[in-house]
Write a structure and sequence with these properties.
Elements: H1 3-14, H2 23-34, E1 41-48, E2 51-59, E3 64-70, E4 91-92, E5 95-97, H3 105-121, E6 128-134, H4 142-149, E7 156-161, E8 169-174, E9 176-185, H5 200-216, E10 221-222, E11 226-227, E12 229-237, E13 247-256, H6 262-277, E14 284-288, H7 302-315, E15 320-324, H8 330-333, E16 341-344, E17 358-360, H9 361-383
Parallel strand pairs: 3-6, 3-7, 7-16, 8-15
Antiparallel strand pairs: 1-2, 2-6, 4-5, 5-17, 9-13, 9-14, 10-11, 12-13
Bound molecules: zinc ion.
Cofactor: Zn(2+); Co(2+)
Organism: Levilactobacillus fuyuanensis
Catalytic activity: N-succinyl-(2S,6S)-2,6-diaminopimelate + H2O = (2S,6S)-2,6-diaminopimelate + succinate
Length: about 400
């Protein structure tokens, strides 16, 4: 494939405004690229109307390497603030602009093109590759969750997520996330007779005052990720100045580390809520939205080290083996039956989720060379008994 053809595929992907939805259009386009190759097994896995995950499998008997990317992008925000229209895929010099240019349609295009070039060239792979293109990564990783539940990751020997780490970073461990909400229900009455009501704000504050010190007791720190983070970021309650509030709520964001599995935190939050609810008039309800486990990792794992060596060689830099403060689809895929290493490495710039998001075309093309070298090397290595990942 010519560099122009590779750039055109990325532009086409950016021109589909898959903002937290409409991933089916991306899936349809990618599927159309594989359509000329009957040996590619194409499966669409519908999450919701207009939202299809896409799984494409190529290759032969032997170990299977997963290549994954999400098809959704975050909103463009104020489009008039962009110098280059967010869904145009405009090229200026070495920069290709647009929402998703960095996070992560360049990574997605690069893994798709890697597979297309193997097909085009009739490469005999010592195993298989499975493209896992997901919906809804930015809003809860539920596409990856669905593919995992349906068994699409059960035969993986390794997983590479093409998120925008930059090719000079291999991410082998990542923080998890717990977003939770506490709703306090009281009884609204005129504020001249508070004794007849129940103040939902007062009761919510009981939780607020207790949860900070409770979470601060988690003093273990991860050598690369740091400590557990807990922040109450949203709080609201009350209706008007002379009414006892019947409703108050808060939302908190936690960034977890492997030392504290999410269940440990759930148990603590739930017992605090249960304790407070024993008090007269207190009614607190706790809920979570799309929590993610932290990804533990071993910097010496064969896939991590191989990715570093190959990126060093292909790109001529010293690739760093690092941790990430953000969760990724790997947290879901790792729930699969197979036991494998999940890494994150892909082309990117520091403009993800920002206006005038862009990717360096040089880095994008280099990423394709990197994946094309990594895939056969990994499959070869995974076949050797001493490095088979049990
Ligand atoms: Zn992303």
């Amino acid at each position: 494939m010519t560099p122009q053809a590779k750039i055109a595929i990325l532009q086409h992907l950016i021109q589909i405004p898959s903002v937290n939805d409409h991933e089916a259009q991306v899936a349809d386009y990618i599927a159309s690229l594989f359509a000329p190759y009957p040996q590619a097994k194409i499966e669409k896995v519908t999450y919701a109307n207009g939202r299809d995950n896409l799984v494409v499998t190529i290759g032969h008997e032997g170990p299977q390497l997963g290549l994954s990317g999400h098809m959704d992008v975050v909103a463009a925000g104020d489009e008039s603030a962009w110098t280059h229209a967010p869904f145009a895929g405009e090229v200026v010099g070495d920069q290709l602009f647009g929402r998703g240019a960095s996070d992560m349609k360049s990574g997605l295009a690069a893994i798709v093109i890697t597979m297309l070039e193997f097909l085009e060239q009739g490469t005999q792979l010592p195993g298989s590759i499975r493209l896992l293109a997901t919906v809804g990564e930015e809003t809860g990783e539920y596409g990856a969750g669905q593919l995992t539940d349906e068994g699409y990751a059960d035969n993986l020997a390794g997983l590479v997520i093409a998120e925008p780490s930059g090719l000079d970073n291999v991410v082998y461990t990542a923080r998890g996330v717990i977003d939770y909400k506490v709703v306090s229900t009281g009884k609204g009455v005129h504020s001249a007779q508070p004794e007849n009501g129940i103040n939902a704000i007062d009761n919510l504050m009981k939780f607020y005052n207790a949860v900070g010190p409770l979470m601060a007791k988690h003093t273990k720190t991860d050598p690369v990720l740091g400590g557990l983070l807990h922040n109450v970021d949203l709080i609201s309650g009350g209706e008007q100045i002379n009414s006892i509030p019947a409703h108050a709520e808060l939302m908190a964001n936690m960034r977890t580390i492997p030392a504290y599995p999410n269940q440990v935190i759930y148990d603590e939050l739930e017992s605090l809520i249960a304790e407070l609810n024993k008090e007269d008039g207190v009614q607190l309800d706790l809920s979570y939205s799309f929590p993610e486990e932290a990804i533990p990792g071993d910097p010496q794992a064969p896939l991590v080290q191989l990715a570093k060596q190959i990126s060093d060689k292909v790109c001529g830099h010293d690739t760093q083996v690092v941790g990430s403060g953000g969760a990724n689809d790997g947290a879901e895929f790792l729930r699969a039956k197979a036991d494998f290493t999940s890494i994150e490495i892909g082309p990117g710039s520091n403009t993800s989720h920002q206006i005038d998001e862009y990717i360096s075309i040089k880095e994008y093309l280099q990423a394709i060379d990197f994946y094309e070298a990594l895939v056969p090397a990994f499959l070869q290595q995974a076949q050797k008994p001493e490095s088979v990942i049990e």
